[in-house]
Design goal:
UvrD-like_helicase_C, Rossmann fold, coiled coil, DNA binding, seven-stranded parallel β-sheet, 766 residues, single chain, binds adenosine-5'-triphosphate, hydrolase
Length: 766
């Protein structure tokens, strides 16, 4: 880089920082004044209020005066908050005000324009922007184009510019460290710097090095369904977090973080990504796992967790049934079944009062089916509830003169009477009136559980209904379509009933169970949710997706995944794409492929992609590193020694390490053995655990979406990772590594590693 350019930019940076300093001083002053004003109002609050309570109009004046003082106080409070927030932003800006510059000429203009791009915009007068927000329409040119004509989208349509210069800066703590000019999309040097650094317990934003394909994902506003298929480490997660920040900026004022929800693979992952949006100056969206989403609706039932789902061994028939229960076909079958329920077949439960039915199930059924045939299930349940509440109100009257009520009134203590008056004693005309009042209060209290049962639809019987749905299925669904016999189905239903009795449900049943319940109760879904993001889509089945869609009927969807990283061998993701295409309008569906893997060094990506049968489309990013090591050991102890040796190497080089075992049981054992050998490691037991610094031992099914400097794959022996069955699982684990990968096995090496060309790794025998 020419000397003059660096000096020029250094000077420019100095000028901008001076202006930021001026803005800081002003914001400090504003904050101080707002604080003073606030203090003064608080102190003089009652001096400044005109108090006059001698007449009605005087009291009104007093109330108005208090209100005015309160309003002034809250205005000062707002301006104080505003000033402190601005101050905070400017202080951040001082460290790294911008990261890029572009020069371009707009069509029809005679002069070139220069803009600087940073995390947020900054201007020294209303029309004079010194820094543009990376999300501003014009900033897209920086990410999207090579030199020459570049198009970009504005809220008013497409625009084009002639791009003449693209310059990148490294600025640290307000000091210019380096300047690069590039005619590539985003110069490799900056990306290399970003990728070469050590991993952290928290993911970082990628704002200064967003790649062109990623930019498409981030800025897409047209699709109802945006589907991103991308190799491991291709930046899917990084891109969607940036996308959330983009959408919050683009629709500022109309969209808030509470209207965006992201389904993530596990709680560890939530932890891992929770700093990205705050770093970009935005609030985090709602984030949960599907398990949490389902679980909060049915607290009394234990839903199958990740580990149970992962460890499950199914017979061939069970596998087919499981697959069917996770399909769109079954989703439609449940919808159809619910339609029948509008005519007959709804199961009810008695609502009990003092050991006897307040409303018998027969009576409830009679009410439920008394409505006109045009009523849908939602209207029916509402009508039934209203009729039951009317019955309840009549019951209050009819119970007045019963013996239990009389006895209860007679035996009331003074305190209890006081309480029934709600500490507000009243005058009664005579004793009878007082009795009636107290009796009503007692009856209403006693009937409260009945009222709750009505309002909470406890007269429905979801368990019985779900079982009936399963039992009756062969009568209206041809089991031949799924290659299952009636006996096999019967056996399966019996098992589900047993599980329900134990308050257990598998994940596939849970979705169907909840969906049926929502249909029965006429639930409409959350219409205020505007964007739904689902990461690691390959681990969902079509039923779950359809159910999520049902829950958020007005939202736009962004689905991200890698069909090569399905960790559940029982479920196939291949059919997922075709099922998806029937769920959304094809004209509003866009698919983006990300083929380049940024996470790992070239050596690691070249190695891991060989594990897959169809891995050739994965491109490695040219970042150089050491060859992966495949260590084949004579016995268990040797294998452990190889791990310890690598841990020492990692520690010396300041690399974070993760040891990934296939099952939880295996991880528990290694963690124990490593501790006994004096190594300090943390075992990740469940998906709800927090991420910690230092070496961790994590089971394969919890490593989803995470990354580590150095990955050690434990026991890749032939019987642990089998050909066909475990290809994707092993690929997923190995692709967690950024800079270093060690695969250790005892005796026979898994054929999945054996088939990798030997020049792609270094073999060690111990
Ligand atoms: N444009 C980029 N600039 C800098 N770093 C990037 C870029 N894109 C991706 N990365 C980095 O590459 C790594 C992998 O990205 P990310 O976790 O988003 O990939 P992914 O596609 O979600 O992977 P997986 O499917 O394996 O979970 C992260 O460390 C991320 O910060």
């Amino acid at each position: 880089m020419a000397e003059g350019i660096f000096e020029y930019e250094d000077k420019h940076l100095g000028e901008v920082l001076d202006k930021v300093d001026t803005a800081i001083a002003k914001a400090e002053n504003d904050a101080e004044n707002a604080e003073k004003d606030r203090g003064a109002i608080q102190k003089n609050f009652y001096n400044d209020v005109r108090i006059n309570t001698s007449s009605y109009s005087g009291m009104m004046d007093t109330a108005i005066s208090i209100r005015q003082q309160q309003q002034m106080l809250s205005e000062r409070e707002n301006s104080w908050q505003h000033a402190t927030k601005r101050l905070e932003t400017f202080k951040q800006m001082k460290k790294r005000p911008y990261f890029a510059r572009i020069d371009f000429r707009e069509s029809g203009e005679k002069k070139d324009e220069t803009i600087y791009i940073g995390l947020g915009s900054f201007s020294d007068s209303p029309d004079h922007f010194l820094i543009y927000d990376w999300r501003a329409p014009i900033s897209s040119v920086y990410y999207d184009g090579n030199m020459g004509k570049v198009e970009y989208t504005t809220p008013d349509g497409q625009q084009s510019v002639d791009l003449k210069l693209k310059r990148q800066f490294t600025i640290e703590e307000g000091k210019l460290i380096s300047v690069y000019d590039t005619d590539e999309t985003i110069g490799d040097q900056m990306l290399l710097n970003a990728l070469g650094s050590q991993s952290d317990v928290k993911m970082k934003s990628i704002v200064s090095t967003i790649q062109r394909e990623q930019n498409k994902i981030i800025r897409n506003t047209s699709a109802d369904l945006l589907f991103v298929q991308g190799a491991a480490g291709s930046g899917k997660t990084a891109a969607i977090l940036q996308r959330v920040a983009f959408l919050l900026y683009r629709y500022r004022g109309n969209l808030n973080a509470g209207q965006v929800i992201m389904f993530s693979p596990n709680q560890l992952f939530n932890d891992y990504v929770d700093q990205v949006l705050p770093e970009l100056g935005e609030q985090n969206m709602i984030q949960m796992t599907y398990y949490q989403f389902a679980r909060r609706r049915i607290p009394n039932i234990e839903v199958e967790n990740l580990q149970q789902r992962f460890d499950k061994k199914l017979t061939e028939a069970e596998r087919k049934i499981d697959q069917f229960k996770g399909s769109l076909q079954f989703f439609k079958a449940v919808s159809r079944y619910a339609e029948f329920l509008g005519k007959s077949g709804m199961r009810f439960r008695n609502i009990m009062f003092q050991g006897k039915p307040f409303a018998s199930k027969e009576k409830i059924k009679e009410i439920y089916y008394s409505f006109n045939s045009t009523y849908n299930l939602g209207n029916r349940i509402e009508g039934t509830r209203e009729a039951l509440i009317r019955m309840l109100n009549q019951k209050v009257g009819s119970e007045l003169r019963t013996k239990w009520v009389e006895d209860a009134v007679q035996s009331l203590s003074q305190e209890e009477i006081h309480e029934l008056f709600k500490n507000d004693p009243r005058e009664f005309k005579d004793n009878d009136e007082e009795f009636k009042f107290l009796a009503r209060q007692i009856i209403m209290k006693e009937l409260k559980p009945v009222r709750n049962a009505i309002m909470r639809n406890r007269f429905l019987s979801i368990n019985a209904q779900y079982v009936q749905l399963l039992r009756s299925l062969p009568k209206w669904f041809d089991l031949k379509k799924i290659n299952v016999t009636e006996e096999e189905w019967e056996k399966h239903v019996d098992r589900t009933i047993e599980e329900l009795k134990e308050h257990h449900l598998t994940m596939v049943d849970t979705s169907a169970y909840l969906y049926l319940y929502d249909l029965m109760t006429g639930k409409k879904g959350e219409r205020s949710m505007r964007y739904v993001f689902i990461d690691e889509i390959q681990d969902y089945n079509a039923f779950q997706l359809a159910y999520i869609r049902f829950n958020f009927p007005r939202a736009k969807f962004t689905l991200l995944g890698d069909l090569n990283q399905s960790i559940y061998a029982n479920e196939t993701s291949a059919t997922l794409l075709s099922e998806l295409s029937t769920m959304f309008n094809p004209e509003k569906t866009e698919v983006i492929q990300l083929a380049k893997s940024y996470r790992s060094t070239q050596q690691i990506t070249d190695f891991t992609k060989e594990i897959l049968v169809e891995g050739e489309s994965i491109e490695s990013f040219s970042r150089d590193g050491e060859l992966p090591i495949v260590s084949v050991n004579r016995n268990h102890q040797k294998m452990l020694d190889a791990v310890i040796k690598q841990l020492h190497r990692d520690r010396e080089d300041d690399e974070t390490s993760a040891i990934i075992g296939r099952s939880y049981a295996e991880c528990e054992q290694i963690a124990e053995e490593l501790k006994n050998a004096g190594e300090s490691v943390t075992l990740i037991r469940t998906e709800n655990q927090r991420l910690v610094e230092g070496t961790i031992v994590v089971p394969s099914f919890l490593a989803k979406g995470l990354e580590f400097d150095s990955v050690i794959v434990w026991n890749t022996s032939a019987d642990t990772y089998q050909e066909h069955r475990d290809e994707q699982l092993l690929y997923t684990i190995c692709s967690r590594a950024m800079h270093r990968l060690l695969v250790v096995s005892e005796k026979d090496l898994s054929p999945l590693i054996g088939k990798i060309p030997s020049e792609l790794y270094r073999r060690e025998e111990n």
